[in-house]
Amino acid sequence: PGRAYRYQFTVKQHGTYWYHSHSGFQEQQGVYAPIVIEPREPEPFTYDREHVVLLSDWTDEDPARVLARLKKQADYYNFGQRTLGTLIRDARRDGWRATFGERAMWGAMRMNAADLADVSGYTYTFLMNGQPPAANWTALFRAGERVRLRFINAAAMTFFDVRIPGLAMTVVAADGQPVAPVTVDEFRIGNAEIYDVIVTPAGGTAYTIFAQAMDRSGYARGTLAPAPG
């Protein structure tokens, strides 16, 4: 602790990357950051401005306590369980035999059908560039600009569904490497994944950058805007 170590290596590629710790719970405690390697030669796409959008999850609990709870009860943080009400609803729709058969199948697998995330918004606050939704992290643009957004999922546990309502996104790179452009309204980004997208926002309009946890228990949020505030 308190000392520095210098890493030196030959860079063989450019693009959007990141680093994070693999020691203990340091990644969950915030030891991560983006790495952007600038290209020597022109890239196969153009843009006028860029922003890194680093997504993560944060808990005020001791991460060791989170793990201890999961070891005792794998669905400790999952409150999206099926109930007697959903059993009756499914039976009315599919019949009792099919419904009990489906429940027995899940029981034989020793897991539940709502197992979308090990840790939920019950303990997590979802962050965008280190800021919670209420802080409203803001990325600026000028009308008519092509804006490159470098999305990085630095979360310890969370998959995010990312969308910018009212604005299409053209994916131009994945995990640092250029790809054939694909225009989407939404994409899912898993742990450690990276997607570079280009958007062309209209002038005078602010857009919400919305990254919702896959289990819908919370979200990270920021704003793409022509001016602060």
Please describe what this structure looks like.
- It is built from 3 helices and 13 strands.
- The chain has helices at 63-72, 84-94, 96-108; strands at 15-20, 32-37, 49-59, 124-128, 137-140, 147-153, 160-163, 169-174, 177-184, 186-189, 194-199, 207-213, 219-225.
- The strands form 3 sheets. A 6-stranded mixed sheet has the order 4-3-6-11-8-9, with no helix packed on it.
- α2 packs across α3.
Overall number of strands? 13
Q: Please tell me the overall pLDDT.
A: 95
Strand percentage: 35-45%
Series of H and E elements: EEEHHHEEEEEEEEEE
Parts with pLDDT < 50 across at least 5 consecutive residues: none
Strand order of the largest sheet: 4-3-6-11-8-9
Alpha-carbon distance between the termini?
40 Å
With helices defined by DSSP (H or I, 4 residues minimum), what is the helix count? 3
Radius of gyration: 21 Å
Summarize the structure.
By secondary structure, the protein is α+β, with helices and mostly antiparallel strands.
What labels would you give this structure?
single chain, alpha+beta, 229 residues, 5-stranded mixed sheet
What is the secondary structure topology, with strand pairs?
Layout: E1 15-20, E2 32-37, E3 49-59, H1 63-72, H2 84-94, H3 96-108, E4 124-128, E5 137-140, E6 147-153, E7 160-163, E8 169-174, E9 177-184, E10 186-189, E11 194-199, E12 207-213, E13 219-225
Parallel strand pairs: 3-6, 5-13
Antiparallel strand pairs: 1-2, 3-4, 6-11, 7-10, 7-12, 8-9, 8-11, 12-13
Helix pairs in contact: 2-3
